[in-house]
Amino acid sequence: MRKGGKGIAVAGSLLADLSYFIDTYPEPGLLTKIRKSVCDAGGSGNLILDLARLDGELPVKVSAVIGEDEHGWMLAEALSRYPNIDLGNITRQGESSVTIVMNAVDTRQRTFFFRPAGSDIYDETYIDWDKIEADIFHLEYLLLMERVDSEDDEYGTHGARILHEAQRRGMKTSIDVVSEQGTRAERIVSASLKYTDYCSLNEIEAQAVTGVSFLKDGQVQERQIREAFRRLAEKGVAVWAVIHAPEWSYGYDCRQEQMVYLPSLRLPDGYIKGTTGAGDAYCSGILYGAYQGWGLEQAMKLGTACAACSLSEANGTDGMRSYEEVMEVWEKYRRTEK
Fold it and tell me: 296-312 pLDDT, tens per residue?
């Protein structure tokens, strides 16, 4: 593995995931019982912990705003368990960002309530560039942070300004977004793509950002997905664009204009315990591959295996393992048919 690198910086929305397991989601005015509650690191915390577990020698540098409340203490404690995570650019202020998740046992449906707090106030003024100097700068999540998504007369959005500054300082850049449909997604994300080297999106996000519909009756239309990649490259993605879904992933090397396809792993019945954080796990594999200087297909294999590991546990990070263990999962469950 690579030695002596500056690592990966993860900036943006670090939040607490507070999950309640309830009998059913009640109608207005009615009551339901909470059977269990769990509090974990979420948001960028998923990616941060995934990278730290993937390689204990990888420097992972964090820039975020967390609260001076119990959730902030939980986040700081969870990340401080890993000596390769640098918390030197975390600001403690106000309340923490929290996602409250209601997990209905009867329907297996989840309902989300989000308190933005630190996510909405985060901007470049909270970034100490000297403390997060890295080989790759990852900004997470666009469409979730009010100030990052706000308009900028020069760059289009404040997020684009941040990414431009990271590139100016010699870092490769990466973004992640939340799943949101509509014109806002294309407008806000496109501004940042001008200053993005690596872009990893799920199938919902990719269609919203590019304006290209590439699914028909649940099946990928390869001509259309190639058009989606062409638009991502045209919007500015410089190195890799990746689109992933539960059943597959496609990647595009923007420099060589080559597309790569990989199916998901063949996981046995009962293997999947939860889907929270699987997209972040996939992204961790892509970023780690980029950091190591691998080719796109090798990075996608790791991303696919990382996502599979994430699925093995209910929360977003407990399933992640070391690189060697992750690749054992790839070898065990891989398949080649399309």
Answer: 999 999 999 999 999 99
